[in-house]
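new request in #modeling-help
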Amino acid sequence: MILLQNSGEPIYQQIATQLKEDILTGKLKQGEYLPSIRSLAKDLKISVITTMKAYELLQEEGLVSAAQGKGFYVNAQDSEMLKEQHLRKVEENLMNAIAAAKIAGISRKELEELFLTLLGME
Amino acid sequence: MENVLEIVDLKKKFRGFELNVKELNIPKGFATALIGENGAGKSTLLNILAGIRVDYKGHIRYFGKYEDGDRDKEEYRVRENIGYTGPGGVFLPHWTAKEVAEVSEILFEGFHRDRFEQLCSDLAISTTQDKSKKFSALSDGNKMKMVLAAAFARDTSLLIMDEPASPLDPLMRDKLCCMIREYLAEEEGERSVLFSTHNISDMENVTDYAIIMEHGKIVEQGFVEDLKEKYILVKGNAEDAALARKVLYSITENKYGFEGICLACRLDELAGLNVEAETPTLFQISVAIMKQNTVIR
C-alpha cells in the first residue's frame, strides 16, 4: 500500500481507496477478514483512528461489515453493484470528454463521429 | 465507545493556579495526547491519574469499574495495570540498569526481565558501558530510554507518560511511536496510552485523541480526524486580512498575505474573498487554540 503524506487526499481516504480496489478486483475475497485496525496502524505507521476511519468508510459503502469483537470482513460483492460501480466510472469519464469537447469547440456531430470511430477501433 | 479513565469535577489548587476538570473521558483502545503550554496543568493531571499525587478533590473511575478509592486495593490490581513514566526519571540516582530491573521485578508482578533487556537493546542502551553506568550519570535521553524500557517491559493496560518524547532524538521519537503502536496492537482495543507532549508534529502519527489544556482547564478535545474536519486552515492575500480576521480563530499576517485557522463551518463567511483552504495539522490546530487562550501572541 502506498500512502502519500502531502497529496492533499486524507490518509484514511487513500487506505480506503486501495482496499476498495483489492475488494472489487477480488484480491480480497468474500468473508476474508481485513487486518485488525491496530495491527494495520502499526504496519503502516499511522494512528489507530486513521485506520479506523478508513474501515468505517468501507463499511458505509457496504463493502465490509463489522463483526463484534472480531473485526471487519469483506462482504459478498453482488454483480449488480459491481456493474453499478463501473457504470458510474464510465459516466464520469464520458462527462469529462464532453466537457473537454465543449472547451475545444468540437460540435456534437463531430463528437458522435469520434465516439463511433473509437468504438469501431475496439 | 468505552473509556479507560472517566474524570468528574477534578480539582487541585495551588497558589495562583487551579486545575479544574469538569468532565473528561480518555477513550479505551487508543493513544491520547495531552497538549498545552508550560504550566497548563498537564503534569499535575497526569500525576493525579497515575496515583502519584493523591491530594485532590473529585472522582476518577479506572477501567470502567474501579473508583479512585479502590486504586490501592490490591485485589483490584489497578496500580499493577498502570505504567507510568515521568520527566527526569523515576529511579534512584545510583541504580544501574541491572538494579532497575531487579527493583522492578520486586515491585511489579508483570515485569518481564527479558523484555526489558530487549527494549534496552532496541533503544540503543545495550552497551555494557551504559548498563554499568549509574542512572544519574546517564544523559537525559538515555535516562528517558531506560524509564521507557522499564515501563514497556511490564504487562499493563494503561500507560501514562509525562513528556516521553522531549529528551529523545528524532530516531528515538520514531522508535517511541512504533513502541506505542505495538503496545496498542498487542491486545486489540484493550490497551490505552495517555501521554503529554510539546512535540506535537513528531507524535501526530501516533495520536488518536487530543486534549488541549490551558490554565488548568480543558479547552478542546476530540479524535484527531474529527478535529481536522472541525477546523480548517485558510490562506489569503494581505488586502483581505482585515475581513478574514473577523472569522479566523487565530491569524498571522505580513505584507504578502495571511494565514489562520477557523471553524470549518464558518468558511462560508469568507465567500467572495480570494482564499485557499486546506486541512490543518494537529500542530497547527493546537497552536491556534493555544494562542486564542493566552496573552502572548
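bot summary: Chain B has a mean pLDDT of 91.
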